[in-house]
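Fill in residues.
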């Protein structure tokens, strides 16, 4: 193979090594016919960034864990196959893929690697591919011999994310012959769906215990640690669309990421924002009484909403596949409940409907059951075509419907199911639960029916991973429909807002080291499952009045605040007769407020987390909700040395900075908290004279902030602290 290369990055990143684009990467990118030149450049740039934060693969020791964040169904697999070729071009000989917890995902990943990498130009001289390898298969000697070959083939290993298979891999890499040949050269580990199964589910229990043993790890997590320990030079890359778990685990955990890359989706990607914010008419609510739950609402007959969804789907197939010829097939996904019994019940309903409709449409014209069914399809036709510019006639659709129904493959997707033969039918209806969740790609999915019943608080990452209906479907978006319970629709809207804020925050950070890791999240849901989180994780509210403490940076903040105030034009509130009750405000554009909050220093962790969350939220309000302004309110602006407040030197906190309601000869003072506005987040600036009996603190003057989050802007956040603090459960 020719080794003509192009230098794409020099001497940057964790490993501090030059990165070159070789022929393997060039060939892979050139074959991506669905990408335009700009998208190819983005793909190369982002994979180069990922690799630049890895450990130098040539004769080095060390390890690093990094994070790659994409959208659900946005092309993460192409990213890590491109990363694979780029890593190989730069000296990596062995790549390990932790390919999900289910066999269908392992098979899917292995097939995709072979499809992308084993082209007509490539053969076993360039790549050796092993799936769930074992010592008994003689793999150690095969890998050792491959490492000795002068033409240096890359060794690609896909393994199920299960203790048995990962431990077997550790046995392989503990073999003396491999250790000798590999030496201190780098191995790349790619953990696909990295927030699933990989993280330690004993983390919260252990963080509460005064003492705990090393073996108190969840089994898969422990296996991953053993594999990492067997590799003296490796980079562990976490790929996921739901990074809440990796971002919120203990910062000292070996799977806590140090660097990150946010992937850019292709131009035709349709995700949560597309469906739930930009095109909400594509979402259809399932009536509560038709929402299935094994215990609370175990349906005994096929719900009408499912019948309608199937008819809309089949009508879409007739229009898009049979008449338009735009695709060879379309598919529908039905995800009712995690219990197999529920999937089997829905599969039976679907199978019976398909058989019944085929038989009824085959009857003579005038048959009352046929006439009634045609009327139902007319209603479905009207639903399906309402966004189409030049739809075919209903007569043309009905002329094809019978063939569509007869060419429909109804598949129950459970553990052990065979691979879907997509090319064998024009229509596929897939019924299942967890097997249709995370990582599994439903090809050409146009209609989703998901009557999942929510009990208690949902977790953000779980509900997002169910969105198999996201993907590259811009060209047939107008015939897509998603059927969900009303409560689920609200959850998804909240999640989409959370996701966009999170991605914006991640893009702004060069590294995850030494930053406040905080995620904005609606109070109605948890970020992720609690068992992987330590007691360092805290939940706070952005609602009503909140008080900051700014004791650690008094001198810096004093200079900063006074310089800031000098440049503002204020409006006075009503005069309440005394200087400590007279305040003024300035209505400022939101970017000015953001710059002010950025510059105001807060060193204690609870306030630093709240500051980070507030900054994220202000940016989101500006960018996504069109909020243009916020308020600064200077309290008691004529009191030269500030209002006196008690100070606790042990906790480094000022007692309540807000003056309460009171009456005097000058009238009734409404209290400090009355000085706010409801159309924007308000920041009160308080000049405080500390009341304390020590020389060090008594009489010291400082600035601190009170913040008001109006009801319309109330939110919550989850963050990871560098110190143990209690959850924020106050008003």
């Amino acid at each position: 193979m020719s080794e003509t290369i192009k230098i794409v990055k020099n001497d940057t990143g964790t490993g501090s090594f030059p990165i070159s684009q070789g022929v393997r990467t060039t060939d892979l990118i050139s074959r991506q016919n669905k990408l335009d030149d700009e998208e190819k450049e983005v793909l190369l740039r982002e994979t180069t960034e990922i690799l630049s934060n890895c450990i130098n693969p040539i004769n080095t020791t060390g390890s690093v864990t990094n994070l790659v964040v994409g959208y659900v169904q946005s092309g993460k697999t192409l990213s890590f196959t491109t990363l694979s070729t780029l890593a190989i071009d730069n000296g990596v000989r062995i790549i390990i893929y932790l390919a999900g917890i289910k066999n269908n995902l392992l098979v899917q990943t292995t097939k995709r690697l072979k499809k992308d990498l084993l082209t007509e130009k490539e053969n076993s001289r360039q790549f050796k591919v092993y799936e769930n390898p074992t010592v008994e298969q003689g793999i150690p000697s095969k890998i050792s011999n491959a490492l000795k070959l002068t033409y240096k083939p890359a060794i690609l290993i896909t393994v199920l994310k299960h203790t048995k298979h990962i431990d077997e891999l550790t046995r392989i890499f503990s073999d003396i012959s491999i250790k000798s040949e590999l030496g201190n050269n780098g191995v790349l580990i790619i953990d696909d769906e990295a927030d699933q199964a990989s993280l330690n589910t004993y983390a919260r229990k252990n963080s509460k215990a005064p003492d705990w043993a090393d073996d108190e790890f969840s089994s898969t997590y422990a296996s991953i640690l053993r594999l990492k320990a067997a590799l003296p030079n490796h980079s562990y890359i976490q790929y996921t669309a739901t990074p809440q778990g990796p971002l919120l685990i203990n910062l000292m955990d070996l799977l806590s990421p140090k660097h990150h890359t946010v992937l850019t989706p292709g131009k035709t990607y349709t995700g949560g924002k597309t469906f739930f914010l930009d095109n909400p008419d594509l979402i259809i609510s399932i009536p509560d009484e038709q929402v299935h739950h094994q215990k609370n609402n175990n349906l005994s007959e096929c719900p009408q909403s499912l019948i309608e969804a199937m008819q809309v789907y089949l009508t879409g197939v007739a229009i898009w596949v049979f008449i338009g010829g735009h695709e060879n097939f379309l598919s529908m996904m039905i995800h009712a409940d995690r219990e197999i019994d529920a999937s089997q019940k829905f599969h039976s309903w679907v199978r019976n409907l398909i058989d019944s409709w085929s038989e009824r449409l085959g009857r003579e014209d005038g048959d009352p059951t046929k006439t009634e069914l045609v009327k139902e399809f007319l209603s479905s036709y009207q639903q399906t075509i309402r966004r189409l510019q030049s739809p075919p006639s209903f007569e043309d659709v009905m002329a094809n419907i019978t063939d569509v129904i007869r060419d429909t493959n109804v598949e129950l997707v459970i553990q052990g199911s065979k691979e879907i033969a997509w090319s064998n039918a024009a229509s596929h209806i897939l019924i299942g639960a967890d097997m249709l969740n995370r990582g599994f790609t439903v090809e050409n999915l146009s209609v989703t029916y998901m009557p999942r019943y929510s009990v208690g608080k949902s977790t953000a990452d779980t509900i997002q991973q169910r969105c198999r209906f996201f993907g590259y479907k811009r060209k047939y978006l107008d015939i897509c429909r998603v059927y969900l319970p009303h409560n689920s629709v609200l959850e998804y809207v909240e999640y989409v807002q959370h996701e966009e804020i999170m991605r914006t925050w991640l893009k702004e950070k060069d590294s995850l080291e030494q930053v406040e890791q905080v995620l904005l999240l609606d109070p109605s849901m948890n970020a992720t499952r609690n068992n992987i989180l330590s007691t360092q994780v805290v939940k706070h509210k952005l609602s009503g009045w909140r008080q900051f403490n700014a004791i650690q940076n008094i001198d810096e903040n004093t200079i900063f605040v006074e310089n800031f105030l000098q440049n503002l034009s204020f409006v006075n509130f009503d005069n309440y007769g005394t200087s400590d009750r007279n305040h003024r405000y300035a209505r400022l554009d939101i970017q000015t407020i953001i710059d002010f909050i950025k510059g105001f220093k807060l060193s204690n962790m609870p306030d630093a987390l709240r500051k980070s969350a507030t900054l994220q939220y202000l940016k989101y309000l500006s960018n996504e909700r069109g909020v243009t302004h916020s308020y600064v309110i200077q309290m008691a602006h004529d009191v030269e040395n500030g209002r006196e407040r008690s100070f606790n030197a042990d906790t480094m906190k000022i007692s309540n900075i807000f003056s309460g309601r009171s009456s005097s000869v000058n009238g009734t003072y409404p209290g400090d908290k009355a000085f706010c506005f409801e159309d924007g987040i308000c920041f009160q600036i308080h000049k405080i004279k500390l009341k304390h009996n020590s020389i060090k603190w008594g009489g010291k003057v400082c600035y601190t902030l009170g913040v008001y989050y109006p009801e319309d802007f109330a939110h919550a956040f989850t963050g990871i602290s560098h110190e143990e603090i209690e959850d924020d459960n106050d008003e």
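The radius of gyration is 30 Å.
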